[in-house]
Amino acid sequence: MAAILIVEDDKHTRRLTGARLKPYYNVEEAENGKEAMDILDNKHIDLIIADIQMPVMNGYDLVKRLREEKNSIPVIMLTAMHTFDDKKMGFASGTDDYLTKPINYEELLWRIKALLRRANIASERKIKVGEVVLDSSAYTVIKGDRTIDLARKEFELLYKLLSYPGMIFTKTQLLDEIWGYDTKSDETTIKTHINRLRNKFEGCQAFEIVTIRGLGYKADILES
């Protein structure tokens, strides 16, 4: 079970958030950034939820300190402030996500799950969906007991879609991110590679690549 550190000086909010998360995660609590750093020195934490306005060490300074120490632990900023400049400052400090108060706890759980998934992918450089395993360190795809041969761009396209299941990517986004901004390839290239992937994973029960007409493509997970 993943460990979540809640850093919040308001006792009521801290305890309520902890109570909402404890059915799904191991929860640690701190009243400010300094206490959080002490906990991080002694315990393994997978994700931090931090308020901004706190005494001793605020949320911005906590995240800056972590990033200066090359600590890439995912951080969700949780705050009552919601102007563009507030969010800009939060992301500039190195936070990964931003949620404003009052807290929608269902949305918070979604965001935690998404960040933990991405952190796991980034650290292991692998994605496992059902019996399909993509290893980006070796550009290999294993399905059950056999290897599926993919061209490099096919692999990168599939890895991108499966890294963000349910997210719709436009053809332009995929061209820019995988082929590069200066590519001479066009949207037909994306369609061709999508068709190749569908053919190679025909009958796969782990995921499917879905066309969103007029928008682009997404990957839906069928079994995890």
Explain what this protein looks like in three dimensions.
The chain has 224 residues and is of the alpha/beta class. It folds into 2 domains: 3-124, Response regulator (Rossmann fold), CATH 3.40.50.2300; 126-221, Arc Repressor Mutant, subunit A (Orthogonal Bundle), CATH 1.10.10.10. It has helices at residues 11-21, 33-42, 59-68, 84-93, 105-124, 152-163, 171-179, 187-200; strands at 3-7, 26-30, 47-51, 75-79, 97-100, 126-129, 132-135, 140-143, 146-148, 169-170, 207-212, 216-221. The strands form 3 sheets. The chain has a 5-stranded parallel beta sheet with strand order 2-1-3-4-5, with helices on both faces. It has a 4-stranded antiparallel beta sheet with strand order 6-7-8-9. The longest helix has 20 residues, at 105-124.
Question: Topology, please?
Answer:
Blueprint lengths: L2 E5 L3 H11 L4 E5 L2 H10 L4 E5 L7 H10 L6 E5 L4 H10 L3 E4 L4 H20 L1 E4 L2 E4 L4 E4 L2 E3 L3 H12 L5 E2 H9 L7 H14 L6 E6 L3 E6 L3
Parallel strand pairs: 1-2, 1-3, 3-4, 4-5
Antiparallel strand pairs: 6-7, 7-8, 8-9, 10-12, 11-12
Helix pairs in contact: 6-8, 7-8
Question: How do you describe this structure in short?
Answer:
Its main location: cytoplasm. It is built from eight helices and twelve strands.
Task: Name a few traits of the molecule.
224 residues, alpha/beta, Rossmann fold, Arc Repressor Mutant, subunit A, 2 domains, five-stranded parallel β-sheet, four-stranded antiparallel β-sheet, elongated
